[in-house]
Design a protein that fits this description.
198 residues, alpha/beta, oxidoreductase activity, 44% helix, Rossmann fold, binds flavin mononucleotide, Flavoprotein-like_sf
């Protein structure tokens, strides 16, 4: 049996991002559950702001085409996003909006063909008291609209500047369990989908 392959996507490009730290914990949970995980480094997938004229004249940005291919090769995705004024980030939305556009192979198929029916999980982290929980409702809806099946498990990390250390340490066992639990849940759902498909 081939191992489950998951992508890990962070809605913050910041090197010291708390969401990046939280994502590392969720990735550990997915790996412990048996998944191979590919971290998508945001700075390796820089895309212009979506513009229909640009798409018509130049086609899909090379980074978007690369990410479409990565989605094709993976069984699900773990998404971490900061909360900006109650919403998930424009970086995350712009990236996945481009990915949803027709494939660059000329087949005319939508990019969502590589997302539809696959497993997804959501986490968020913030220095604030709510941990970014408001962003997750919108992100959950958005990922569902792309055809992903979002696991009910989710995790928001308040006071992330105190809880998530730069060295990968985590000051709260319950938060660790929740973050790892999201990663594991995505792996388990992807496995179940794979079994049904096979
Ligand atoms: C434009 C903007 C809006 C923000 N709005 C919120 C917010 O609604 N709720 C919140 O908890 N933090 C908010 N923050 C603070 C972010 O949580 C904080 O910058 C966090 O470190 C971003 O995530 P990162 O560390 O993964 O980059 C906002 C930050 C920015 C730049």
């Amino acid at each position: 049996m081939t191992r489950t392959r998951l992508l890990a996507l962070c809605g913050s490009a910041r090197q010291d991002s708390f969401n990046r730290r939280a994502l590392a914990v969720a990735i550990r949970g997915a790996k412990n559950a048996g998944a191979d995980v590919t971290f998508v480094e945001p700075r390796d997938f820089v895309m212009p702001l979506y513009d229909g004229d640009l798409e018509a004249s130049e086609g899909l940005p090379e980074a978007a085409a690369r990410l479409q291919r990565l989605f094709a090769e993976h069984d699900g995705v773990i998404v971490a996003t900061p909360e900006y004024n109650g919403f998930f980030t424009p970086l995350l939305k712009n990236t996945l909006d481009w990915v949803s556009r027709p494939l660059s192979d000329g087949s005319g198929k939508p990019g969502t063909i590589h997302l539809r029916g696959k497993a997804a999980g959501l986490i968020t982290a913030s220095p604030g008291a709510l941990g970014g929980i408001r962003a997750m409702q919108h992100a959950r809806l958005y990922l569902s609209n792309l055809g992903l099946i979002v696991v009910p498990e989710q995790a928001a990390v308040p006071a992330a500047n105190k809880v998530l250390g730069a060295d990968g340490s985590i000051a709260d066992d319950r938060t660790r369990d929740m973050l790892e639990g999201v990663g594991a849940a995505v792996c388990n759902l992807a496995n179940a989908i794979g079994r049904n498909a096979g």
